Amino acid sequence: MTAVKGVQPRIVRKMAGPYLTRACLQEGRTFRWFESLKQHPAPYLGAGEIELVTGITRSVGQHVSLPNIPDEKSALWEPVQTPRLLCDDLFDSSQGKVLTLGETVRNLGVFLGLLHLCEIPENSLPLRLEPAWLQMDREARKGISGALKGLPIEECPQLRADADRMPVLSLRTFVHGRFSTGLVVSRGVFKVMGWREAGFGDPRVDVAYLLSEIVEAAAVADLAVESGCSLIQGFLDGYREACDPSLDLAYLESFVAERILKHYAQSTWAFGENGQIGEILHSVEQAWIDLRPSFEASGHE
Protein backbone atom coordinates (compact mmCIF):
# COMPACT_ATOMS: atom_id res chain seq x y z
CA MET A 1 0.00 0.00 0.00
CA THR A 2 1.03 3.63 -0.48
CA ALA A 3 1.70 5.33 2.83
CA VAL A 4 1.70 9.03 3.65
CA LYS A 5 5.27 10.28 3.41
CA GLY A 6 6.96 10.06 6.81
CA VAL A 7 3.95 8.40 8.46
CA GLN A 8 3.92 4.74 9.44
CA PRO A 9 0.42 3.24 9.07
CA ARG A 10 -0.97 1.73 12.26
CA ILE A 11 -3.92 -0.55 12.90
CA VAL A 12 -6.72 1.19 14.78
CA ARG A 13 -9.44 -1.46 14.37
CA LYS A 14 -9.31 -5.19 13.73
CA MET A 15 -12.02 -7.78 13.09
CA ALA A 16 -10.80 -11.35 12.86
CA GLY A 17 -12.90 -14.21 11.50
CA PRO A 18 -12.22 -17.85 10.64
CA TYR A 19 -11.43 -17.09 6.98
CA LEU A 20 -10.34 -13.49 6.82
CA THR A 21 -9.17 -10.57 8.91
CA ARG A 22 -10.37 -7.02 8.34
CA ALA A 23 -8.40 -4.11 9.75
CA CYS A 24 -8.52 -0.34 9.57
CA LEU A 25 -5.19 1.39 9.03
CA GLN A 26 -4.57 5.01 10.01
CA GLU A 27 -2.38 7.01 7.66
CA GLY A 28 -1.98 10.52 9.06
CA ARG A 29 -5.50 11.94 9.20
CA THR A 30 -7.11 9.36 6.95
CA PHE A 31 -8.03 5.69 7.33
CA ARG A 32 -8.08 2.72 4.99
CA TRP A 33 -9.77 -0.64 5.42
CA PHE A 34 -7.72 -3.70 4.56
CA GLU A 35 -8.74 -7.34 4.21
CA SER A 36 -6.54 -10.42 4.29
CA LEU A 37 -7.83 -13.89 3.41
CA LYS A 38 -6.49 -16.79 5.43
CA GLN A 39 -7.61 -19.51 3.04
CA HIS A 40 -7.57 -20.12 -0.70
CA PRO A 41 -9.23 -17.13 -2.38
CA ALA A 42 -10.99 -19.03 -5.18
CA PRO A 43 -14.63 -18.08 -4.30
CA TYR A 44 -13.70 -14.41 -3.85
CA LEU A 45 -13.51 -12.01 -6.78
CA GLY A 46 -10.05 -11.20 -8.08
CA ALA A 47 -8.70 -8.05 -9.72
CA GLY A 48 -10.15 -8.84 -13.14
CA GLU A 49 -13.61 -9.54 -11.78
CA ILE A 50 -13.54 -6.42 -9.60
CA GLU A 51 -12.79 -4.46 -12.77
CA LEU A 52 -15.92 -6.02 -14.28
CA VAL A 53 -17.92 -4.96 -11.20
CA THR A 54 -16.70 -1.41 -11.81
CA GLY A 55 -18.54 -1.41 -15.12
CA ILE A 56 -21.63 -3.18 -13.75
CA THR A 57 -22.05 -0.66 -10.90
CA ARG A 58 -21.29 2.47 -12.89
CA SER A 59 -24.85 3.79 -12.49
CA VAL A 60 -24.52 3.73 -8.67
CA GLY A 61 -20.79 4.41 -8.59
CA GLN A 62 -20.92 7.40 -6.22
CA HIS A 63 -21.62 5.05 -3.31
CA VAL A 64 -19.45 2.12 -4.43
CA SER A 65 -16.04 1.69 -2.83
CA LEU A 66 -14.33 -1.08 -4.76
CA PRO A 67 -11.09 -2.59 -3.47
CA ASN A 68 -7.66 -2.57 -4.97
CA ILE A 69 -6.39 -6.17 -5.13
CA PRO A 70 -2.58 -6.10 -4.65
CA ASP A 71 -2.47 -9.91 -4.51
CA GLU A 72 -5.02 -12.74 -4.52
CA LYS A 73 -5.41 -12.82 -0.73
CA SER A 74 -5.46 -9.06 -0.03
CA ALA A 75 -7.78 -6.13 -0.66
CA LEU A 76 -7.37 -2.43 0.16
CA TRP A 77 -10.15 0.20 0.02
CA GLU A 78 -9.98 3.91 -0.67
CA PRO A 79 -9.10 6.38 2.13
CA VAL A 80 -11.94 7.57 4.38
CA GLN A 81 -12.12 10.26 7.07
CA THR A 82 -13.18 8.02 9.96
CA PRO A 83 -12.78 4.41 11.06
CA ARG A 84 -16.40 4.37 12.19
CA LEU A 85 -18.89 2.25 10.28
CA LEU A 86 -22.67 2.31 10.07
CA CYS A 87 -22.86 -0.64 12.46
CA ASP A 88 -21.23 1.52 15.16
CA ASP A 89 -24.11 4.00 14.93
CA LEU A 90 -26.75 1.26 14.67
CA PHE A 91 -25.57 -0.52 17.81
CA ASP A 92 -24.98 2.76 19.68
CA SER A 93 -28.14 4.57 18.68
CA SER A 94 -28.96 7.58 20.82
CA GLN A 95 -32.02 9.53 19.68
CA GLY A 96 -29.92 12.05 17.78
CA LYS A 97 -28.10 9.31 15.90
CA VAL A 98 -31.35 7.56 14.99
CA LEU A 99 -32.46 10.63 13.03
CA THR A 100 -29.27 10.52 10.96
CA LEU A 101 -29.49 6.74 10.70
CA GLY A 102 -32.98 6.95 9.23
CA GLU A 103 -31.87 9.01 6.25
CA THR A 104 -28.80 6.86 5.63
CA VAL A 105 -30.69 3.57 5.91
CA ARG A 106 -33.42 4.74 3.57
CA ASN A 107 -30.81 5.85 1.04
CA LEU A 108 -29.15 2.46 1.38
CA GLY A 109 -32.49 0.92 0.43
CA VAL A 110 -32.60 3.09 -2.70
CA PHE A 111 -28.98 2.16 -3.47
CA LEU A 112 -29.64 -1.56 -3.11
CA GLY A 113 -32.77 -1.37 -5.25
CA LEU A 114 -30.78 0.30 -8.02
CA LEU A 115 -27.93 -2.17 -7.57
CA HIS A 116 -30.28 -5.09 -8.15
CA LEU A 117 -31.27 -3.49 -11.46
CA CYS A 118 -27.68 -3.47 -12.74
CA GLU A 119 -27.21 -5.69 -15.76
CA ILE A 120 -24.64 -8.44 -15.44
CA PRO A 121 -23.06 -10.21 -18.44
CA GLU A 122 -24.05 -13.88 -18.58
CA ASN A 123 -21.64 -16.25 -16.81
CA SER A 124 -19.31 -13.37 -15.92
CA LEU A 125 -19.49 -13.67 -12.12
CA PRO A 126 -20.07 -16.58 -9.70
CA LEU A 127 -23.51 -17.84 -8.73
CA ARG A 128 -23.95 -17.06 -5.03
CA LEU A 129 -26.24 -19.56 -3.32
CA GLU A 130 -24.29 -19.37 -0.05
CA PRO A 131 -21.58 -17.11 1.43
CA ALA A 132 -18.34 -17.18 -0.54
CA TRP A 133 -16.30 -18.42 2.39
CA LEU A 134 -18.58 -21.45 2.81
CA GLN A 135 -18.27 -22.47 -0.83
CA MET A 136 -14.74 -23.73 -0.22
CA ASP A 137 -15.20 -25.63 3.04
CA ARG A 138 -17.54 -28.61 3.28
CA GLU A 139 -16.51 -29.29 6.88
CA ALA A 140 -17.47 -25.74 7.87
CA ARG A 141 -20.92 -26.22 6.36
CA LYS A 142 -21.35 -29.41 8.38
CA GLY A 143 -20.11 -27.71 11.53
CA ILE A 144 -22.46 -24.75 11.16
CA SER A 145 -25.37 -27.06 10.40
CA GLY A 146 -24.62 -28.91 13.63
CA ALA A 147 -24.35 -25.65 15.57
CA LEU A 148 -27.69 -24.53 14.17
CA LYS A 149 -29.35 -27.73 15.37
CA GLY A 150 -27.75 -27.21 18.78
CA LEU A 151 -29.16 -23.71 19.35
CA PRO A 152 -31.78 -23.47 22.13
CA ILE A 153 -34.57 -22.99 19.62
CA GLU A 154 -37.20 -23.17 22.37
CA GLU A 155 -36.19 -19.59 23.18
CA CYS A 156 -37.22 -18.31 19.73
CA PRO A 157 -40.19 -20.29 18.35
CA GLN A 158 -41.51 -17.53 16.07
CA LEU A 159 -38.08 -16.90 14.60
CA ARG A 160 -37.62 -20.60 13.93
CA ALA A 161 -41.11 -20.97 12.45
CA ASP A 162 -40.41 -18.15 10.01
CA ALA A 163 -36.98 -19.55 9.11
CA ASP A 164 -38.55 -22.95 8.43
CA ARG A 165 -40.65 -21.33 5.67
CA MET A 166 -37.49 -20.36 3.77
CA PRO A 167 -38.06 -20.98 0.04
CA VAL A 168 -35.59 -22.03 -2.64
CA LEU A 169 -33.30 -19.19 -3.79
CA SER A 170 -35.10 -18.67 -7.07
CA LEU A 171 -34.63 -15.01 -7.99
CA ARG A 172 -31.52 -13.90 -9.90
CA THR A 173 -29.97 -10.41 -10.03
CA PHE A 174 -26.58 -8.87 -9.47
CA VAL A 175 -25.95 -9.04 -5.69
CA HIS A 176 -23.45 -7.52 -3.29
CA GLY A 177 -23.11 -10.76 -1.35
CA ARG A 178 -22.65 -9.30 2.15
CA PHE A 179 -24.79 -6.19 2.42
CA SER A 180 -23.87 -5.39 6.02
CA THR A 181 -23.79 -2.19 8.06
CA GLY A 182 -20.27 -3.34 8.95
CA LEU A 183 -19.21 -2.55 5.38
CA VAL A 184 -20.74 0.92 5.12
CA VAL A 185 -18.84 4.14 5.86
CA SER A 186 -21.65 6.60 6.55
CA ARG A 187 -19.89 9.91 7.17
CA GLY A 188 -20.64 12.35 4.37
CA VAL A 189 -21.60 10.52 1.18
CA PHE A 190 -22.00 6.92 2.33
CA LYS A 191 -19.71 4.33 0.77
CA VAL A 192 -20.37 0.60 0.51
CA MET A 193 -17.25 -1.55 0.74
CA GLY A 194 -16.87 -5.31 0.28
CA TRP A 195 -17.67 -6.57 -3.24
CA ARG A 196 -15.33 -9.58 -3.33
CA GLU A 197 -18.40 -11.73 -2.60
CA ALA A 198 -20.54 -10.10 -5.30
CA GLY A 199 -22.08 -12.19 -8.03
CA PHE A 200 -25.34 -13.52 -9.40
CA GLY A 201 -27.89 -14.47 -6.76
CA ASP A 202 -31.19 -13.95 -4.96
CA PRO A 203 -31.60 -10.25 -4.07
CA ARG A 204 -33.62 -11.10 -0.96
CA VAL A 205 -30.41 -12.35 0.68
CA ASP A 206 -28.87 -8.87 0.36
CA VAL A 207 -32.04 -7.23 1.72
CA ALA A 208 -32.25 -9.66 4.64
CA TYR A 209 -28.61 -9.21 5.62
CA LEU A 210 -29.06 -5.54 6.54
CA LEU A 211 -32.52 -5.99 8.04
CA SER A 212 -31.29 -8.78 10.31
CA GLU A 213 -28.76 -6.38 11.83
CA ILE A 214 -31.51 -3.89 12.67
CA VAL A 215 -33.40 -6.66 14.48
CA GLU A 216 -30.28 -7.67 16.40
CA ALA A 217 -29.56 -4.04 17.35
CA ALA A 218 -33.07 -3.82 18.82
CA ALA A 219 -32.43 -7.04 20.73
CA VAL A 220 -28.95 -6.57 22.19
CA ALA A 221 -28.23 -2.83 21.97
CA ASP A 222 -30.09 0.38 22.77
CA LEU A 223 -32.15 0.65 19.58
CA ALA A 224 -35.76 1.33 20.60
CA VAL A 225 -38.49 -0.75 18.97
CA GLU A 226 -40.08 2.36 17.44
CA SER A 227 -36.74 3.33 15.92
CA GLY A 228 -36.19 -0.19 14.62
CA CYS A 229 -39.62 -0.19 12.95
CA SER A 230 -38.89 3.19 11.38
CA LEU A 231 -35.51 2.01 10.04
CA ILE A 232 -36.98 -1.17 8.55
CA GLN A 233 -39.87 0.68 6.91
CA GLY A 234 -37.57 3.39 5.60
CA PHE A 235 -35.13 0.89 4.11
CA LEU A 236 -37.89 -1.13 2.43
CA ASP A 237 -39.65 2.00 1.18
CA GLY A 238 -36.40 3.19 -0.38
CA TYR A 239 -35.76 -0.20 -1.91
CA ARG A 240 -39.29 -0.46 -3.29
CA GLU A 241 -39.01 3.05 -4.76
CA ALA A 242 -35.88 2.14 -6.71
CA CYS A 243 -36.17 -1.52 -7.66
CA ASP A 244 -38.07 -3.21 -10.46
CA PRO A 245 -41.75 -3.44 -9.38
CA SER A 246 -41.81 -7.02 -10.67
CA LEU A 247 -39.09 -8.03 -8.22
CA ASP A 248 -41.02 -10.00 -5.61
CA LEU A 249 -39.83 -9.87 -1.99
CA ALA A 250 -42.13 -12.70 -0.91
CA TYR A 251 -40.98 -14.64 2.15
CA LEU A 252 -38.73 -11.77 3.24
CA GLU A 253 -39.46 -12.56 6.90
CA SER A 254 -38.11 -16.07 6.31
CA PHE A 255 -34.92 -14.73 4.75
CA VAL A 256 -34.34 -12.40 7.70
CA ALA A 257 -35.14 -15.05 10.30
CA GLU A 258 -32.82 -17.58 8.68
CA ARG A 259 -30.02 -15.03 8.46
CA ILE A 260 -30.34 -14.26 12.20
CA LEU A 261 -30.26 -17.92 13.24
CA LYS A 262 -27.36 -18.71 10.92
CA HIS A 263 -25.44 -15.76 12.31
CA TYR A 264 -25.58 -17.25 15.80
CA ALA A 265 -24.82 -20.74 14.49
CA GLN A 266 -21.78 -19.44 12.61
CA SER A 267 -20.59 -17.58 15.69
CA THR A 268 -20.97 -20.72 17.82
CA TRP A 269 -19.08 -22.81 15.27
CA ALA A 270 -16.26 -20.26 14.89
CA PHE A 271 -15.77 -19.10 18.47
CA GLY A 272 -17.30 -21.79 20.67
CA GLU A 273 -20.46 -21.97 22.73
CA ASN A 274 -21.71 -18.85 24.47
CA GLY A 275 -23.17 -19.59 27.88
CA GLN A 276 -25.64 -16.74 27.42
CA ILE A 277 -26.94 -17.83 24.01
CA GLY A 278 -30.32 -18.80 25.48
CA GLU A 279 -30.81 -15.31 26.95
CA ILE A 280 -29.62 -13.68 23.73
CA LEU A 281 -32.01 -15.67 21.55
CA HIS A 282 -34.85 -14.89 23.97
CA SER A 283 -34.12 -11.17 23.51
CA VAL A 284 -33.85 -11.57 19.74
CA GLU A 285 -37.20 -13.39 19.69
CA GLN A 286 -38.89 -10.52 21.51
CA ALA A 287 -37.36 -7.97 19.14
CA TRP A 288 -38.43 -10.13 16.20
CA ILE A 289 -42.04 -10.26 17.41
CA ASP A 290 -42.05 -6.48 17.92
CA LEU A 291 -40.45 -5.63 14.56
CA ARG A 292 -41.98 -8.29 12.33
CA PRO A 293 -45.11 -6.19 11.52
CA SER A 294 -42.82 -3.59 9.93
CA PHE A 295 -42.33 -5.87 6.94
CA GLU A 296 -46.09 -5.99 6.34
CA ALA A 297 -46.44 -2.24 6.93
CA SER A 298 -44.05 -1.64 4.05
CA GLY A 299 -46.12 -3.75 1.71
CA HIS A 300 -43.91 -6.85 1.72
CA GLU A 301 -44.96 -10.34 2.64
Secondary structure elements and their pairing?
Layout: E1 10-16, E2 20-27, E3 30-37, H1 47-56, E4 68-71, E5 74-76, H2 86-90, H3 95-115, E6 127-128, H4 132-135, H5 138-150, H6 157-163, E7 173-175, E8 184-185, E9 191-192, E10 199-201, H7 203-220, H8 225-242, H9 252-271, H10 277-291, H11 293-297
Parallel strand pairs: 6-10
Antiparallel strand pairs: 1-2, 2-3, 3-5, 4-5, 7-10, 8-9
Descriptive key words:
about 300 residues, alpha+beta, Aminoglycoside 3'-phosphotransferase, Chain: A, domain 2, 2 domains, five-stranded antiparallel sheet, three-stranded mixed sheet, about 15% strand, globular
Q: In words, what does this structure look like?
A:
- The structure is a single chain.
- This protein is α+β, with helices and mostly antiparallel strands.
- The chain folds into 2 domains: 10-76; 86-297, Aminoglycoside 3'-phosphotransferase, Chain: A, domain 2 (Alpha-Beta Complex), CATH 3.90.1200.
- Helix content is 45%, strand content 14%.
- The protein contains 11 helices and 10 strands.
- The strands form 3 sheets. Strands 1-2-3-5-4 form a 5-stranded antiparallel sheet, with no helix packed on it. A 3-stranded mixed sheet has the order 6-10-7, covered by helices on one side. A two-stranded antiparallel ribbon has the order 8-9.
- Helix 5 packs across helix 9, helix 7 (203-220) crosses helix 9 and helix 7 packs across helix 10.
- The radius of gyration is 19 Å and the shape is globular.
- The model has no long low-confidence stretch (mean pLDDT 90).
